[in-house]
Amino acid sequence: CVMAVCLVGICVERSLEMVIGILGILKAGGAYVPLDPSYPQERLSYMIEDAALKVVLNHEATSDVLEAYTGSVVALNMPALYSSYSSSALCTAALGLSSSNLAYVIYTSGSTGKPKGVLTPHIGVARLVINQGFMELNERTVMMQCANTAFDAATLELWGPLLNGGQCVLYPYARLSIDLLNTELDKHNVNSLWLTAGFFREWAMYGSKPRALKQLLAGGDVLDLAAVREVQRNMPELVLINGYGPTENTTFSTTYKFAGQYTSEFVPIGKALSSDELYIMSPKQQLCPFGTVGELYVGGDGLARGYLNRPDLTAERFIENPFHDAAQTNSC
User: Fold this and answer.
1) At what angle do helices 122-129 and 153-162 cross, to 10 degrees?
2) Contacts with 111 (C-beta within 8 Å, 6 or more apart), sequence order
3) Is residue 185 pLDDT above 90, yes or no?
4) What are the start-end ranges of the E strands in 157-222?
């Protein structure tokens, strides 16, 4: 059962405690629910209530954010917290968990209504960062973690290096600025980076040229062609990748690697990840012939398990795959 885990909130700023807290939740067999400390109290209260969070991890910098919360609060920055517990590794296998159990619940922006908690299993994360072909992830990877953990880009930034023996560098500032980011990239010899399409454009047109950067992913919206060409002009050896996909399909559904000096007038979304499936279908869910317009359906190991406490919306958006009896396809 994918819900046979405890949901634990984590309301911390980007820090070592944040990583410790997330790892602790997962090692104990739980699933983490990131709570952005900068969110309005109304949104935080809604998420806490909707997820029925009985425990929330925080630290000193965010202690006042949870003043109205009546559940248990664990302060991650208290030295006594670590000294009072065993340092022996937990045996997760003994908990009876599998790759289909939940890893985290990330809430959508709520731009089309109330925020929805997306139920993401461990297999979705593993398929994104283990033995995938769209970028290099190994013990030499040094990746910057600069996205908010309540945004699913953090999934790649955290687990890409950590699950491959690499290094995850935490961006130390609350505000993302080009100068500060470039300074940190050079300071830590970061070779892998993920940026939103909007910030990618600003960063590229600024003439950024971090000395160690080898691969850059950008996505979340249509990439600006002028920015693509500027980056390729400034860093001709850089591997530039367009990543496309909804939160409901664990960060990326497709990727496109730009080759050489890109001259086309549009940016493709590329091909599916190796464990995923893509279909272009008509409103009647019939496969569209090549060259015709349709709706993109995604399925496979990256697919979320639906929306928390929203069986109606889950049934609407997560449909049975008409081409595989046991699979599901997401129509987002």
Assistant:
1) 70
2) none
3) yes
4) 167-170, 192-196, 215-219
